[in-house]
Design goal:
- The chain is α+β, with helices and mostly antiparallel strands.
- The chain contains nine helices and twelve strands.
- The protein folds into three domains: 36 residues, no CATH class; 48 residues, no CATH class; 273 residues, Rhodopsin 7-helix transmembrane proteins (Rhopdopsin 7-helix transmembrane proteins).
- Strand 11 and strand 12 form a beta hairpin.
- Helix 1 runs antiparallel to helix 3.
């Protein structure tokens, strides 16, 4: 009795009827009737049978547990790249993956450009301010021996104008491409211009205060109110700022760095390295802190001298100058430090800082000097000596 031929069946569902159909048999070898086969969806083409598809570029093979010849394809995402067939690795901190995550490439470096809107506005303010400052200086030099210029205290006026000029010029250092030289100049001049300005104003208000405080108690003049003494006091106050900067240079020399954390986005394609000077927010506070101290002290003296006679006509303008300056810097603090987590941090903070410094200089220039220049040029008949209390300085 011969062996029966093994038949091959396929379970098929057609017209909502299920049945087994013979699609082949085995007699020494396999015979299949391809046309008799039926697949889900009504297709007759034999499905492609495989446990895993090949992985694309930038994908690693993750082996299925218990089935070593099968895998899942897992994308290397974020800052990862495909190191080999079975693993992804993180790119170095200054690199990002290429488009298909098969290798790493350098992260682009950015800096504040002169053509950027963040730079154009501060530069425009500074240019106008420098031109106005030079105009005042030229006017004062030309009319140096007139009563208004003399009454303003010529020596301290020129010192204050120098500080105002330096405040405006600081903008160009803050926007220039950082290197060791530029970073060093930033440390020196960012606080120096303000220190010179407020040291001169503090010396003026202190002089006025001491004159009337002494006058209420004695007929003799207070000491150190001569022009030479005033210059010595001003430069002594300013030297504290320079001493602090020198110590800073000794402890932590200037350098330009590339910060890859400021603009490290979740999307690697948007990541940028920021070229900047190595000045932290804390260092900036220390750098400007002394200028702020001079400003606050000057404001206190301005309040104390607000009731002096009109003959000492600089007391009230200095007071208004200091009140306005305090408002500017009170507005600066939340804007500057409130953007520390922003991806636009470098641009916002640089613009905020430069505009605040320039506005402070503009307030001093506009309130203390422009009225004098207006009288000198437009109303020379008012540029005459006024009766004031005569006090001879004692050194």
């Amino acid at each position: 009795m011969g062996m029966e031929t093994p038949l091959i069946y396929q379970y098929q569902i057609r017209n909502q009827t299920a049945e087994y159909k013979i699609i082949g048999h085995w007699t020494d070898q396999l015979y299949l009737n391809i046309r008799a086969m039926h697949w889900p969806g009504g297709g007759r083409q034999i499905p492609y049978s495989i446990c895993s598809h090949p992985c694309q570029a930038g994908e690693r093979k993750k082996i299925v547990k218990g089935i070593p010849c099968c895998w899942h394809c897992e994308r290397c995402d974020g800052y990862q790249y495909q190191a080999d067939t079975y693993s992804c690795k993180m790119c170095r901190f200054d690199l990002r993956p290429n488009e298909n995550h098969t290798a790493c490439r350098p992260i682009p470096i950015v800096k504040l450009e002169w053509s950027s809107p963040w730079a154009v506005i501060p530069v425009l303010i500074s240019v106008v301010g420098i031109m106005a400052t030079l105009f005042v200086v030229v006017t004062f030099i030309r009319y140096n021996d007139t009563p208004i210029v003399k009454a303003s205290g010529r020596e301290l006026s020129y010192v204050l104008l120098t500080g105002i000029f330096m405040c405006y010029a600081t903008t160009f250092l803050m926007i220039s491409a950082p290197d060791v030289g530029i970073c060093s100049l930033r440390r020196i001049f960012l606080g120096l211009g303000m220190s010179i300005s407020y040291a001169a104003l503090l010396t003026k208000t202190n002089r006025i205060y001491r004159i009337f405080e002494q006058g209420s108690m004695s007929v003799s003049a207070p000491r150190f109110i001569s022009p030479a003494s005033q210059l010595v006091i001003t430069f002594s106050l300013t030297s504290v700022q320079l001493l602090g900067v020198c110590i800073w240079f000794g402890v932590d020399p200037s350098q330009a760095i590339i910060d890859y954390e400021d603009q490290r986005m979740a999307n690697p394609d948007m990541a940028r390295g920021v070229l900047k000077c190595d000045i932290s927010d804390l260092s900036l506070i220390c750098l400007l802190g002394y200028s702020m101290l001079l400003m606050v002290t000057c404001t206190v003296y301005a309040i104390k001298t607000r009731g002096v006679p009109e003959a000492f006509n600089e007391a009230k303008p200095i007071g208004f100058t200091m009140y306005t300056t305090c408002i500017i810097w009170l507005a600066f603090i939340p804007i500057f430090f409130g953007t520390s987590q922003s991806t636009e941090k470098m641009y916002i903070q640089t613009t905020t800082l430069t505009i605040s410094v320039s506005l402070s200089a503009s307030v001093s220039l506009g309130m203390l000097y422009m009225p004098k220049v207006y009288v000198i040029l437009r109303h020379p008949e008012q540029n005459v000596p006024k009766r004031t209390r005569s006090l001879k300085g004692e050194d």
